[in-house]
Structure formats: structure tokens, C-alpha cells
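fyi for ur records
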Amino acid sequence: MGCYDCCMRCLGGVPYCSLVATLLCFSGIALFCGCGHQALTETERLIETYFARNLQDYITLAYIIQYFQYVIYGLASFFFLYCIVLLAEGFYTTSAAKQTFGEFRSTMCGRCLSSTFIVMTYILAVLWLLVFAFSALPVHFFYNMDATCHTIDVLTETPASINQLCVDARQYGLLPWNAVPGKACGMTLSSICQTREYRITYDLYIAAFAGAGITLLALLTYTASTTYNFAVLRYLGRKGIGSRC
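which gave:
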């Protein structure tokens, strides 16, 4: 066998779908965790500066933000390891399905392991769908805030109408109802929207939302590729191609 044929044989065992899904997962998790962590920090700073004067009003929110940041650390570590494992499993199932190497055949244990990864990835994709939906909430909040600020800029000639346009953080559950001031109205709200902190926080939440979507796409790609390989391995097993462990 020549060098070219050997290279083509090795490349034939590369799980390209799993490889693409791994790259998508790494990039999506990096966006979600990195931008989400910083966005939470900036959100606490915005609430502390413009919506709450008393520490007791936002101390609960500060603890929740700190808790979510620890969760982000765990998610980053878990997905890094899980994607590596899925990529390794993709190399196994692809090589076994294509029978790239003579000694690399489908086994009963291998098929059981593949089915386990399919179920785990499917459950993880469903759970991550909830995370994807949850990550849209802060984007929705800042979108409404930005739309209100745009309306204020349009109605600058009627101050009475401007003062009635407000964003109340208490309505979104970010602060208790007795928090003071708890909301920003009129030109005060418009000045907040023009700050660097607000724009950075808004962009970070959008990036985190996009990262969650990319991660969801990666999990769906993993599910599709592992399901296909598992179906091929079952077919080969029924034909008697393979061995039992």
C-alpha cells in the first residue's frame, strides 16, 4: 500500500460531522460562558449604579449572579470534557462503520456505549434548549430598554411624555418591590442607554445568546452523527460483521 492510499484510508476514518460539532461546541461554549460571565458582572454594576441605592435591595441579586458564574465555570469544564469524549467516540464508530482498519470492528460493548452517548446527548440537547430559551430573557430585557430609549430620543420635544417612559427592574424580578428607585425614567433612562457599560452589557448578552444557539446546533449535530453511526453498527452486527466483548 502506497503512502497516498494509506493517507486516504486514515482520512476515511475521520468523523467529520463530529469534528465540526466539536468545533461548534467549543466556540459556542466559549461565547456563552465568557460573555455570559462578564455580562452578569456588568449587570450587577448597572443595577448597583442606576436602579438601587441600598445594598440590601440588590444583595440577593448579587448572590444569584455569583451562583450563576460558578455554574458557568462548571459548564465550561463539563462541555470541554464531554466534547472530547464524543469526538473520541466519533472516531471509534466512524472507523468501525467504515471498517477502516482490519482489527477495528464493531463490538457489542461498542454499540452499547454508542447508544448510551446518543441518549445522553439527546437529553443534554433538550436541557440546553431550556438554557437557550433562558439566555434570551436578558436580551429581551435590554431590547425593551433600548426601544424605550429610542422612543425617548424621538420625543425629546415633549418632556411630559418622556417622563412617563420608564424601565422598572422590579417588574422583571431583578429587585424587590420596595427597592428605591427601582426604575429609570425619561432623560435619566436615556443617559443610561448612552453609557459604555450599558452597550457592552447588551452586546455581551447577545453574544452569549448566540453562543447558546451554536452549542445547541453542535449537540444536534452530535445526536445526528452518533445516531447514524449507531444504525450502521447495528446493521453490521446483524450481518455478523463484528465481535462480542
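The longest strand covers residues 166-168. thats all i got for now
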